[in-house]
Amino acid sequence: MSESNFEEVIHEIIFDSPAGEIKEVYDSLITIVGENSKDTLLNVIEQYNVKNNIPIDVDGNKVLLSENNKDGASRYFDPIIGVSFTVDHLNRKGLDVETHQAKGFTDDHKKLYQSILDYTVNAYPGNVTIAVYPITEESTEEATKLEIIISSTKYNPGNFWNGDWRSKYIYDIASKQLTGNIDVQIHYYEDGNVSFKSNKKIEENSVNDVLNTISTIEKGFENSLDVSFTELNEKQFKSLRRRLPITRSKINWGKAIGNYRLGKDAAEGA
Length: 270
Fold this sequence. Notes:
Blueprint: H1 3-15, H2 22-33, H3 38-51, E1 55-58, E2 61-64, E3 76-78, E4 83-88, E5 93-99, H4 107-123, E6 127-136, E7 143-156, E8 161-172, E9 177-188, E10 194-204, H5 210-240, H6 253-260, H7 262-268
Antiparallel strand pairs: 1-2, 3-4, 4-5, 6-7, 7-8, 8-9, 9-10
Helix pairs in contact: 1-3
């Protein structure tokens, strides 16, 4: 296999990794491909973390990674706690922390951050991390757009399931247009392997109240998921079951249980 094809395969495997399981995927891959491919794996994991806005622990604070909070080639920044840092992408930790003044980040942006934080406290279960990052013009260093990210993760590997919600928006300050995506991923793997993914593309114009618009969008998406789950449970799953047992005859369960005393007979080896 050529080097380019190898990297493409690694990229595909890592980017398809279920929520909260990237470390296990890395351990499996390093066993297969060997330590010589460690740099390739870590490079792809960095891309994965940035694309999926993975929360990083920076001195006890959670900071979301993004293309819009990069500070040079290898550093990232957080405008709220006022730091920049490098990242251990495998263990999701911030290193080499330094003070940092984010360009174009104003008091109004801080207020928006706080209002979104207050909203998520009641709206989201699990571990919630949010970000508001300024997108600036190089000529003026003033923010023309804002990136708003909400990440909620619930990892429960002890019970064989993990899940996350990520909503990411770009708000154009001048045109008042809000665009973005909501992505949900759930993985359940006890005695099986079930993965659920859902997403919604967002485009809203003439947005004056960013928080209210986001809240309305996300409540609507959550309601649509509830409807989908009900449909899945009541219709789709039922269609997967046999309508009749292999004998082609319906079983009278009440009579069968009464006659054969299934539990007692099984316990006695009858």
